[in-house]
């Protein structure tokens, strides 16, 4: 049986607030989504920002066939001890785990460690949904996007974007807000697939997150007022009605199928 590591990107306090608010953590959502495709994996979970034994975990990473690093509310350009711990752990993962699926925040950490750069996106934010992601010619040939529609919408929540790719990266998809929506690059013998969106999270959870983060989102001027929030939530609800679960999670399925 293959063994994978899930890395939780949010701080323990943020996850506790999710739980208190009746919302699944990103790790819980990811495990649910994986179970839709397979129950033939041994799964370990680690939180580099909060786990006191993280250095011991880092010494035994070669036992994993792959790693999935999920989302977070953090911003990679903020120099905090918690973010530095995540960067250091990603560095060890890129040395020792051959297959990495880096989702949203996970991609931003992976890119930063590999010499790329992430900044606040000047074109706006994805607030629960990303529209019009288009797979380019390289992406159409890549296993990440096997059986995926060339143009699609997807759950997403991010304010930052990759502005400089690591050396040797291949851009796979883009949309009007983020040029870098899907990438592939290698660090030594480690193969990294990165996406700036969340196939593993449902639209229903994204709507819950918008309501949960309402005050924070208004403070950040992601929305002007409650009326705009309600209008935007309606857009996501309409998308959810026509969304196909298998198609939405195709990238996760493809990564799982490509584990070796």
Number of domains: 1
Low-confidence stretches: none
Determine the fraction of residues in helical runs and give it as a percent range. 25-40%
Total helical elements: 11
Main sheet record: 9 strands, mixed
Could you please describe the fold and organization of this structure?
This protein is of the alpha/beta class and 260 residues long. It contains 11 helices and 13 strands. The strands form 3 sheets. The chain has a 9-stranded mixed sheet with strand order 2-1-3-4-13-12-11-7-8, sandwiched between helices. The longest helix is centred in the last third of the chain and has 17 residues, at 226-242. The chain is globular and about 50 Å long.
List keywords for this structure.
about 260 residues, 13 strands, alpha/beta, Rossmann fold
The gist of it:
By secondary structure, the protein is α/β, with parallel strands linked by helices.
Write the layout of secondary structure elements.
Elements: E1 2-7, H1 12-20, H2 26-37, E2 41-46, H3 54-58, E3 66-69, H4 81-96, E4 99-103, H5 105-113, E5 117-120, E6 126-127, E7 130-135, H6 137-140, E8 151-154, E9 157-158, E10 160-164, E11 170-174, E12 182-187, E13 190-195, H7 203-212, H8 214-219, H9 226-242, H10 245-248, H11 250-257
Parallel strand pairs: 1-2, 1-3, 3-4, 4-13
Antiparallel strand pairs: 5-10, 6-9, 7-8, 7-11, 11-12, 12-13
Helix pairs in contact: 4-5, 7-9
């Amino acid at each position: 049986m293959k063994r994978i590591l899930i890395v939780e990107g949010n701080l323990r306090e943020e996850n506790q607030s999710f739980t208190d608010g009746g919302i699944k953590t990103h790790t819980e959502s990811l495990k649910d989504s994986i179970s839709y495709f397979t129950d033939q994996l041994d799964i370990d979970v680690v939180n580099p920002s909060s786990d006191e034994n993280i250095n011991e975990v880092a010494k035994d990473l070669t036992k994993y066939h792959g790693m999935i690093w999920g989302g977070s509310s953090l911003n990679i350009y903020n120099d905090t001890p918690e973010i530095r711990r995540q960067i250091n752990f990603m560095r060890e993962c890129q040395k020792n785990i051959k297959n990495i699926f880096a989702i949203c925040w996970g991609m931003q950490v992976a890119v930063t460690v590999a010499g790329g750069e992430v900044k606040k996106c000047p074109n706006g934010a994805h607030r629960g949904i990303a529209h019009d992601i288009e797979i380019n010619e390289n992406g159409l040939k890549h296993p990440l996007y096997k059986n995926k529609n060339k143009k699609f919408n997807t759950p997403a929540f991010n304010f930052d974007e990759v502005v400089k790719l690591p050396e040797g990266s291949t851009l796979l998809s883009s949309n009007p807000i983020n040029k870098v929506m899907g990438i592939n690059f290698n660090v030594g013998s480690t193969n990294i697939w990165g996406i700036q969106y969340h196939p593993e999270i449902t639209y229903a959870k994204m709507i819950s997150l918008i309501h949960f983060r309402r005050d924070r989102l208004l403070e950040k001027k992601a929305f002007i007022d409650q009326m705009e929030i309600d209008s935007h939530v309606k857009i996501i609800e309409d998308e959810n009605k026509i969304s196909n679960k298998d198609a939405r999670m195709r990238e996760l399925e493809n990564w799982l199928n490509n584990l070796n």
